[in-house]
Amino acid sequence: MPGANRDVREVVREEAVWRPRILAALAAGPMTVPEIAAAIDAPVHEVVFWVFGMRRYGWLAELKESESGGYFRYEPTGRVS
Amino acid sequence: MTDMTDMAVARDAAATSLDYDVLVVGAGIGGMESALKLGDMGYKVLLVEKEASVGGKMILLSKVFPTLDCASCISTPKMASTIHHANITPWTYAQVDKIRRTADGTFTATVTQKARHVDIDSCTGCQKCEMACTVAVPDQFNADLVGRRAAHLTFPQAVPKKAVIDRGGSSPCSFACPAGIQAHGYVSLIRSGLDEEAFRLVLDATPLVGTLGRACYAPCEGECTRGSLEGTLPIRRLKRFASDKHDASGKDNGLERPAPNGKRVAIVGSGPTGLTAAFQLAKLGYGVKVFEAAPVAGGFLTLGIPSYRLPEAVVARDIENVTGLGVEIAVNSMVSDPAALKADGFDAVLVATGTHRSQGLGVPGEDRLGVMGGTDFLRKMKLGQAIEVKGKKVVVVGGGNVAMDAARTARRLGASSVTVAYRRSRDEMPAHHVESADAEKEGVQFHLLVAPAEIVGNSAGAVAGLRCTQMRLGAPDASGRRSVEPVQGSSVTIDADLIIAAIGMMPDTSMFGGRVAVEKNGRLSSDKATCQTAVEHVFAAGDAVNGPTDITRSVGEGRKAAHQIDAWLNGREFDNWDDRLPVVDKQAVLARQKAFTLSAPTPDGTQLEPAPADFREIEAPLTEAEARRSSGRCIDCAVCSECGECVAACPVDGCIDLRSTAKTSDLKVGAVVVSTGFKLFPADLKPQYGYGKYQNVITAMQMDRLLAPTRPFNTVLRPGDGKVPDRIAYVLCTGSRDKQVDNPLCSRFCCMYSIKQNQLIMGALPLADVTVHYMDIRAPGKRYDEFYEQAKAMGANYVKGRVADITEKPDGNLLLKYEDIENGGAITESEYDLVVLAVGVQPNRDAEELFGVGELALDEWHYVNEPEEDMNPGQTNIPGVYVAGAASGAKDIADSIVHAGAAAAQVAAHLERTRPALPKIEMVPA
Ligand SMILES: Cc1cc2nc3c(=O)[nH]c(=O)nc-3n(C[C@H](O)[C@H](O)[C@H](O)COP(=O)(O)OP(=O)(O)OC[C@H]3O[C@@H](n4cnc5c(N)ncnc54)[C@H](O)[C@@H]3O)c2cc1C
Ligand code: SF4
Ligand code: SF4
Ligand code: SF4
After folding, report:
1. pLDDT tens by residue, B571-620
2. In CATH terms, is domain A8-76 a member of 1.10.10.10?
3. Does B136 contact A at CB distance below 8 Å?
4. Which one of B128, B714, B716, B811 would you mutate to disrupt binding with A, by most A Cβ within 10 Å of its Cβ?
5. ipTM of this complex
6. Which ligand is nearest to the CA of B647?
7. What is the spatial distance between Cα B299 and Cα B322, in angstroms, rounded to a whole number?
8. How many CB pairs under 8 A join A and B?
9. Element (H, E) at B149
10. Residue B658 CB coordination number (10 Å)
11. Would you kindly state where each structural domain of chain A is located, as residue ranges?
12. Gap from CA of B232 to ligand 3 centroid (Å)
């Protein structure tokens, strides 16, 4: 997980760029943040910003049951644009 | 202190003219409490808050100690009472610029209401704008744990519950566009995958979307802030990308023909100025007819710019955007008397005839066969008229863009050689540097520092060469451009069969026969701002008035002319159609980030051949991936991009005005309460704790956000990877009682909020272990110690001893090295999932900025000083100025409220003392 930290402003700004890739990855089924990071080949701590930005604005939602290993899984809500 | 009796007399006249009895600066719990108490007493209060909602830090908290009441539940009623109180005028999103004491003991405050860009009366707080917005920035109200949008509600319980648009002015790219196109807007739309919306945003300004996507010289790119990092964004090509995508989609352009307004406008000339004006006027319901002398519409777009840069089909497609609105374009229709069109039923006429006449060289031999003007050459070629170029030696005179177009066209027509003869050096060439560089790559030769002296002919009277005088560069003139002077006696002849003179262009006014006023320089005469000529229903704009410019400037001229014609036809005053906000400061934009990750610019995509043989388009379009990647490099200079998505989404017409501006007023007030609160210690100043470096080291404010009902995540998760933490450590006194960071003070509430969070975490995550590393637990208030004992009983573990440092493991867990005083002081190491730094309090230095330098006295730690803290809490060194809440030192909520009440009482006493004989202004019972 450790890795160089980019400026938060820069990471947050890129949410829109990564959004289609995250949604494409989740088309295969709900995933945890580390699983999404692996699927889109991006740093996991940056994926946290994008996933929760997308959750805030209605693209993603968590599955209600908590997962083993302490990670929630997230799935698309159907918002398209 | 000042003699109050004397002052009361002096005040008699002044008091009646007060705008407000009291100005309260800062609407946290302290400011709201003082305002409410003063309002209840009947004083008129102006409450100024710099954020868009009242509430300060308290509204951002989860629960409060020791009652564990929900912070929002107890704050929001107070926030609502504050803004609805009959005696309180709340100005949120406003700032106090300066407060000056006047001779009569009252104060003049300069207050700026920042542009919110949302009408506070009609906004319903529905957040549709926020959902649609295309710009994301860190959410300061969630302690940067998640992004928010440029259009946003400060937080869900904001009071007033009104949106605000974060807009710092115009982004440099948009500001630089002479056509007034929101370049930043379409970049941010493309970044969001909204390509059709990007096309429509440009279409709103001009019908020439595909044209500008190819042939604009892109002044936006010259100003792009990213240019000072690794290179500008390909802003122009992004526009082309949107335009191509639209064309490929087969979608209509979304424009509907408006109902006719009964008026008609004639437009003379169908270049970018005329087409844009026609389009804009047609959208307003005018019946528009365009008269074009040439056999095709488009002006230089079709008769000048070679198709390897701008294919005819693209221009034709753009012109359909105009004709689709019902505009009639009559080609082969020369107008010789524009004013007379009135008799044909036109209420106004716009002359936009451009500069189609090439300037002559003015040297002997110019009348020889084989000499032609640059624009004539290009026009003939575009109209398919025969020009013998194949195998000929061509010399193009001039160093501008037309010269480059002519030279490169001659290469394509098979000239055996093409030489550009120019009187200065390459650096002074007016052609866009890309154009001259590309010309060179296509085999055009440059003969520099030569001025034509004579066109030499052969026995048949045809051109044989260009005799030139050699020139040399002199000193720079006032504009910095170097002058040239002839080298006496020098002469050089360049062999030529065809000479193209591209040294300048002029309007061709011959057809008007003096019926349109012309300036001495040969350009049409009209008012630069209104476009109106001496004949009031005739307007003139574009290159015909300004001399040769470029497409983008012409589009801007067309928009301006349409705006002013519409004003004139409706009897409105002419106004300034350019309502751009001032451009943001690029240095300030760059300073918002500590560092930038450099990302290589997309290669320019031009495919050049050393000997081009056809007119195929030379620039490749951006691929989808390139478009997303390069739009993703945009740093949102002005934050809001003006993409317009919020305006489209807002259900209230006219609620959002992206061009509104700030308002500043000077107000007279009788007293001031400074309640500007405190700041939190920046945790990265303790580098041994790794904040800002290790993702799972957070501050207590971040933890309060994670615990709040309006939290940024779905529960308490660690920001490094979204995991529910099992083992959580607290480091108390981070930045408090610490001489290393120059703060010997105790922050008073860090122990208590940590204990509160410990209890809440154990409630939210029953399996989590919580350990607190402390020096002393300070729990002196009523029920505070019991609260501490309760946390221990719930299972929180309290370890006495300083934390020496924190290191990160590869899995993101953290190793804490600490002193364990109660176990013999051994240095011990423990592993945690998440570490919370209980950061201390710092003074908010905004307070001193409110007054002149050194006027408001601060204590030795830079909090607002209370000279008689024990006997007269709330009083400052300035009579009439009081301090409330944490602005004078760390206080918890209960103490802030008590202190603010005391300050309110002091204000009331001051007001009564200083104007004993006067009625208060319009007392309204609370
Ligand atoms: C993590 C954390 C948890 C806490 N938990 C608790 C708790 O549980 N219980 C408790 O009692 N206390 C708690 N506190 C303390 C509590 O937050 C403070 O006591 C309280 O916010 C002080 O109120 P204030 O109005 O003085 O300042 P603030 O809340 O800081 O409000 C000041 C206001 O002034 C505005 N402002 C600043 N400068 C200007 C200017 N120049 N012009 C106009 N406006 C300006 C600011 O935007 C802000 O709205 C906690 C603090 C923190 C950091
Ligand atoms: S114009 Fe666009 S970027 Fe600006 S606030 Fe509206 S939606 Fe957001
Ligand atoms: S970085 Fe973006 S907003 Fe700033 S000038 Fe460049 S394109 Fe415009
Ligand atoms: S969409 Fe309009 S009404 Fe709704 S919050 Fe935004 S500005 Fe207000």
Report:
1. 999 998 899 999 999 999 999 999 999 999 999 889 999 999 999 999 99
2. yes
3. yes
4. B714
5. 0.96
6. 2
7. 14
8. 121
9. strand B147-149
10. 21
11. 8-76
12. 8
